[in-house]
Specification:
Layout: H1 10-33, H2 37-58, H3 64-88, H4 93-115, H5 126-154, H6 158-177, H7 183-206, H8 217-251
């Protein structure tokens, strides 16, 4: 089995942020516009995610369209989990943030205890891949809870929240590239923060002008970002094929 996850490049982070934006807007679209409700949407999207992960685990290498489909779906499910706890069960954002912080810490702790690494450059066994996707689910759920907590507690509004979270990612980048902070720590910190960043961007674009948004709606915003993701994933698929072909030529 080859490494099952993509190289961390600019493409990676752009698509990741867009996937989190779709996670926010698509969840709202399905639950509210289609009147499925949070519970129904969660059940449906969890089932679809399970199918996508079946294909992801069944592959023997990184397949861009399969991988990023799973990321988009897990973004939606992670958002729905937090929204269900908050809206349907009345769990406070402080509590959900704490719960998912602990859950993510436990996931990383078990992963490291088993594999002695949290690196994403060697996701080449089924067990490591299970740890990887479990951690990603918790990062999306935590990012949703913490992002909503910060935005609502500070009453920042959508675009101000996006600027704050973007600045946080900038600080992580400075720590990594200029202060030589641990690469794995910086990666996962950025992975968590991109969730509220993408959600803030999605809310700003989709919400009504009366609510300080641009009024594109959840349908329009989701469509725009899904098409863009599809285009970028197509480019990454072509790049991946070229890489495989070059590798095969080197072997011969």
């Amino acid at each position: 089995m080859l490494n099952k996850v993509p190289e961390v490049t600019l493409y990676f982070w752009v698509v990741k942020i867009m996937a989190t934006t779709v996670g926010e807007t698509a969840a709202d679209f399905l639950a509210e516009k289609l009147h499925i409700g949070l519970t129904g949407t969660t059940v449906i999207m969890s089932a679809i995610l399970a199918v996508a992960l079946t294909f992801q685990f069944g592959a023997d290498r990184y397949v861009p369209r399969v991988y990023w489909l799973a990321v988009v779906l897990i973004s939606i499910v992670g958002t729905l989990i937090t929204d269900n706890l908050t809206d349907n069960f009345g769990v406070s954002l402080w509590t959900t943030t704490t719960i998912f912080t602990i859950a993510m810490g436990v996931a990383f702790g078990v992963w490291y205890a088993s594999e002695r690494t949290l690196s994403i450059h060697e996701i080449d066994t089924t067990k490591r891949e299970a740890f990887y996707w479990s951690a990603i689910l918790f990062t999306f759920a935590l990012g949703t809870a913490a992002g909503d907590l910060i935005s609502e507690s500070l009453n920042l509004g959508y675009w101000k929240s996006a600027l704050i979270f973007g600045a946080c990612i900038g600080l992580v980048s400075i720590g990594r590239f200029f202060l030589n902070f641990n690469a794995v720590l910086c990666f996962w910190a950025a992975y968590v923060i991109t969730r509220p960043l993408g959600a803030s961007i999605g809310d700003f674009l989709s919400q009504k002008r009366a609510d300080a948004g641009l009024g594109l709606g959840t349908t329009g915003t989701s469509a725009i970002f899904l098409v863009t993701i599809l285009m970028l994933v197509t480019v990454m698929t072509l790049n991946a094929r070229n890489t495989v072909e070059l590798y095969a030529e080197d072997q011969t």
